[in-house]
Amino acid sequence: MQTPTTTAEGHQLPTALEQRNPGMDLDLDWVRTVQANTSAIERRAKTLPGRRSVKKDYQAAWLCKAISLIDLTTLSGDDSEGRVARLCAKAKQPVRADILEALGMTGLTTGAVCVYHDMIETAVSSLKGSGIPVAAVSTGFPAGLSPYHLRIAEIGESVKAGAEEIDIVITRRHVLQGNWQALYNEMKEMREACGDAHVKAILATGELGTLRNVARASLVCMMAGADFIKTSTGKESVNATLPVSLVMIRAIRDYYDRTGFRVGYKPAGGISKAKDSLVYLSLIKDELGDRWLQPDLFRFGASSLLGDIERQLEHHVTGQYSANYRHAMA
Question: What are the two backbone dihedrals, phi and then psi, of residue 28, each rounded to the nearest 5 degrees?
Fold first, then answer.
């Protein structure tokens, strides 16, 4: 098995043998055989929080790992250049220097910074030389209902502006109507528009109706060349959940077993506590293995999560919890 190399900052470097998912022809027979046993999935998900417990130094190490996998995100209508620049500074120094020194950690950064298109230039400039990629939400985020040609054009503009990762949203009605060919064609064209930039397909799972739809949509997006599949925009009423995560992760495992290509996973929305991040990391380790615990294959779509992790790390070092204002995001 190829062991990927990393930069000093801990970011994944591509290797000749670790090929990006090229996609495949749409296999409708495979798609239609995919089922989801909802009751069994929900029973398994309920057991997850109690299955793994790490304490003391081990917990601190896992929390540092979680930080390295965060897409530090701001997607607000009142975003400004100043806010994004401060968020990028936080991405480069996610934990106070004194805490990192006490933990013996150096070079810790978040996995990426995720912004709207208008803020790409600011983010790229602020992160220059850090090795931290800029991700941009695209294709009429979050609803994905703007004219199709404009959604494709938006991807191109974001790549041109310097985004190395593009988070696209699928058309939910294709899934709800079982129009898998239309979803495949859409995802394939969006992947092509991204060029060398990696594409994360946002399924908006809270709006897909059933876990079976989630499983089938996951598979179709991977067949069309998605580099990541992502749960949510963070704007839906229901975002990342453990049952949905279990379904999507097992779809990733099935796709890898069948094709030999790894696809990444990104739960987004609703993950705000350090203890929750540990559950997701243990789930990935159990279901997919250690290789997926790297920034090129797993990300958290979150911002408030970082603040709680930093508080937990300070408690580990000092024995005391600090106020939230001591760990500002920007």
Answer: -70, -30
Nearest to 312 by CA among 10, 67, 91, 51: 67
CATH number (domain holding residue 173): 3.20.20.70
Distance CA 8, CA 108 (A): 9
* 196 catalytic per annotation: no
Q: Which of 188, 200, 230, 276 is catalytic?
A: 230
* pTM beyond cutoff 0.90: yes
Residue 122 lies in a domain: yes
Catalytic residue check, 286: no
Is residue 21 in a domain?
no
Q: Parallel, antiparallel, or unpaired for β 165-169 and 228-230?
A: unpaired
pLDDT digits (tens, 9 = 90+) for 216-267: 999 999 999 999 999 999 998 889 999 999 999 999 999 999 999 999 999 9
pLDDT by residue (tens digit) across 191-200? 999 999 999 9
Annotated catalytic residue 266: yes
Catalytic residue among 71, 90, 92, 167: 167
Query: Per the structure, how many domains does the chain have?
Result: 1
Residue 14 lies in a domain: no
Residue 255 within a domain: yes
Instruction: Give 302's strand partners.
Output: 72
The H or E element spanning position 230 is strand 228-230
Confirm if 188 and 10 have CB atoms less than 8 A apart: no
C-alpha dist (Å) from residue 64 to 246, 278, 293, 309: 23, 11, 12, 8
Domain containing residue 303: 28-316+323-327
Which of these is catalytic: 92, 188, 200, 266? Answer: 266
